[in-house]
Amino acid sequence: DNSPETMTVNLQYQGNTIQTTTYCTTATNGFTGGTGTYSDPYLISTKEQFMLIEDGLDKHYVLTRNIDFNGATLTPFGCTSNPSGGESVEEFTGTLDGNGHTISNFNIEGRINTGLFATIGSNGTVCNLSIEDACIKANPNQATSTQSQFFVGAFAGENYGKIKSCVVSKSVKAEESNKEVGVFFDLNNTTINRNIYVYIGGISGVNSNLISCCKVQNITVKANSEHSFGGENTKTNKNSVYAGGLVGGNSGLLGYSLVDAATTITAKSASTLSPKTTVNPYVVGVAGGICGKV
Asked: What is the pLDDT of residues 20-39, one digit of tens each?
């Protein structure tokens, strides 16, 4: 019999099966199964398979088990940095269904768009996925000298798609070991000649579409932007930092989501004037329980 092996998943509510989905489990393209289409997504069961998402940002994926990355350092999916400090970003337009599973114990390092995905496009969806004991950090000091906007979140730097039923949290084990868990931005540059805008959130840096039924539990959301303005400026320089438990900036919909009381949210903005600067800097640091700026 050459028929492909299959796996059936039953979605239940209050003990009743409300949806049954059958997936192909014949290994293809390095995955446990599936062909990467919406109706037959790739099945992911290892961290090596998870990293293959980078090579197929328009494909569809389902996790079959929890994945522990054992402290590995990742780069945001869809983000390519160049030596000059710039970035090229490709949107994720597929689907990543965590299927109720958790990815844990990893670091993500970026420059400008920082998160599990640099950007989730308008056709992209991430759902039913938990991130535990992760440290997501943007290092803007390595970015190009002309970059002025930065976006940082656990699941995405920028979200134009849908993030549904997702959780970012810190475990008791990480709490006991004082492990740094959360989303961080730290700009500490001596002198810059441009405006700075920072958007940082527990789920996404900014949201322009939908975030629903998500939870942020016992993590740190922290942004620090300290520098001096230099050059012969003729208008007011701006140093604006917006931090929120869910998102730093929002122009979309936020529904049925929560940020627990154990989560700490900090936005710090500080600027000084260099001797040649003749105008006053415009400094904003806003921290909100749900959103930094709407």
From this structure: 666 655 556 899 999 999 99
* Type and span of the H or E element at 42: strand 42-44
Tell me the two tokens of residue 129.
């996925």
Two structure tokens written together for 270: 């500080």
The single-letter code of the amino acid at 267 is A
Six-digit token pair at 43? 């099945």
Residue ranges of alpha helices (H) inside 184-280 are none
* Cβ neighbours of residue 136 closer than 8 Å, sequence gap 6 or more: 107, 108, 110, 114, 115, 116, 152, 153, 154, 182, 183, 184
Beta pairing class for 167-169 and 125-138: parallel
- Please say whether the beta carbons of 128 and 99 come within 8 A: yes
What are the Cα distances from residue 283, in Å, to 137, 186, 248? 22, 16, 16
Q: Is 0.85 surpassed by the pTM of this model?
A: yes
Residue type, 30: G
Determine the pLDDT at residue 40.
95
Tokens of 70: 């054992």
Q: Please tell me the distance from the alpha carbon of residue 83 to that of residue 61, in angstroms, as a whole number.
A: 31
**Residue 21 to residues 9, 83, 155, 195: CA-CA distances in angstroms?**
5, 45, 25, 50
CB contact at 8 A, 207 and 251:
yes
